[in-house]
Design brief:
- With 344 residues, the chain is an alpha+beta fold.
- The chain has 2 domains: 15-203, D-amino Acid Aminotransferase, Chain A, domain 1, CATH 3.30.470.30; 205-329, Nucleic acid-binding proteins (OB fold (Dihydrolipoamide Acetyltransferase, E2P)), CATH 2.40.50.
- Helices cover 19% and strands 31% of the residues.
- It contains 7 helices and 18 strands.
- The chain has helices at 61-68, 91-96, 102-111, 135-149, 164-173, 248-258, 337-341, and strands spanning 15-16, 26-32, 35-42, 45-50, 74-85, 88-89, 114-123, 156-157, 178-185, 198-202, 205-216, 223-231, 237-243, 286-287, 293-298, 301-302, 305-306, 311-315.
- The strands form 4 sheets. Strands 3, 4, 5, 6, 7 and 8 form a 6-stranded mixed beta sheet that branches. Strands 11, 12, 13, 14, 15 and 18 form a 6-stranded antiparallel beta sheet that branches.
Length: 344
């Protein structure tokens, strides 16, 4: 192999933009909702590497075996690890795989096996470095690689297109299967560790949420974050996430605004607080009467919660708190992951 298996490829990054670009110079791809993963193979040696350069093979033994079973004995691939439950992706199930206990990883590998979706070929089966080639040539090489080696494998080829109408369909219909859309320059080489090769457009949505509580900032003199809630079918207010992007000069006045509303319980369904897998302690939170409504912008939902922090767009004094329901997190008529992968 002309490139050693332990060479630390830095994955190509993308610049986030607000709109999908148009033009013949662009190749469009789905932006999958999973873990970025570089896959290296040299003989029986298979290595999986995360976006941050960390080893992933121990957490996804089934992917290692699938890659080792390919007739191609050497390659470097760029792609995305995902876990599919039914016909939809589950980021929660994917997170469960990052666990120190090998026995648990082995069990989950059988119960909820991961999939590896490939979108670039950096070293081909002959050991040739393709990173200096333009994307258009690399994609043709990847298509040939997939046709020859991936037909009987669970490793799948990610679709791509130059048809803008198809891209708009992906963006509008595919719901939680996608994190958005990617546009890459067809005439550029693989920009390892750089953001020069393309752009990403995240699928952002909005929701009207009730403020069920808050946390203080580090100085304890203003709001650190507002805790967001939505009502379920039983009329219970469930904690679904937070918003915290306030200017420093806004935090004190906001605290004065909401403190008169302090009153338990705040949330009557699922509530914030308690240890998590990422943080063993949580700052205390203060409950509020459910009277204030804000509109926030969010990207992904996992387990009926916003996966990331949200951006507050505006206050909604015209909206009744009871109108803020969980169905805002659901996407009607979303296409399945399988439908997208099998699309021609």
């Amino acid at each position: 192999m002309s490139l050693p298996i332990d060479l630390a490829f830095e994955p190509m990054e993308l610049v986030q933009v607000a709109e999908i670009p148009s033009g013949q110079q662009w190749q469009y791809e789905p932006k999958w909702d999973g873990f970025r993963c570089m896959a290296f193979r040299d003989g029986d040696d298979v290595h999986l590497q995360s976006k941050a350069g960390q080893p992933l093979a121990r957490y996804f033994p089934e992917i290692v075996e699938q890659l080792r079973a390919l007739d191609a004995k050497r390659f470097v691939l760029d792609g995305e690890l995902m876990v599919q439950i039914g016909e939809e992706l589950s980021f929660d199930a994917l997170l469960q795989r990052i666990h120190p206990a090998a026995s648990r990883v082995a069990r989950l590998a059988k119960e909820t096996p991961a999939r590896y979706i490939v979108f670039d070929l950096l070293v081909d089966a002959d050991g040739k470095n393709l990173t200096v080639m333009p994307l258009e040539a690399r994609r043709k090489a990847l298509d040939r690689f997939a046709k020859r080696y991936l037909t009987e494998s669970e490793v799948a080829l990610s679709p791509c297109t130059s048809d803008r109408a198809k891209v708009d369909t992906w963006y509008e219909r595919v719901g939680n299967a996608l994190d958005g859309v990617i546009a890459k320059r067809r005439d550029l080489p693989y920009a390892s560790g750089s953001r020069e090769g393309g752009v990403k457009v995240k699928h952002l949505r909005t929701a009207d949420c009730v403020i069920g509580g808050y946390r203080l900032n580090k100085q304890r003199n203003g709001v650190g974050s507002l805790l967001l809630g939505l009502y379920d079918d039983e009329g219970k207010l469930n904690h679904v996430g937070f918003t915290s992007g306030f200017r420093e000069n806004e935090r004190g006045p906001l605290l004065k605004k909401i403190r008169p509303l302090e009153k338990p319980p705040g949330f009557t369904g699922s509530a914030p607080g308690g240890p998590s897998r990422w943080k063993q302690t949580e700052d205390p939170w203060f409950p509020l009467e459910p009277k204030l409504v804000v509109e926030v912008r969010f990207d992904q939902v996992t387990g009926d919660r916003f996966r990331h922090g949200t951006k507050i767009l505006r206050w909604r004094p015209d909206k009744k708190p009871r109108q803020c329901t969980m169905d805002q997190l659901r996407i009607a008529e979303a296409a399945s992951t399988l439908e997208l992968l099998n699309a021609k």
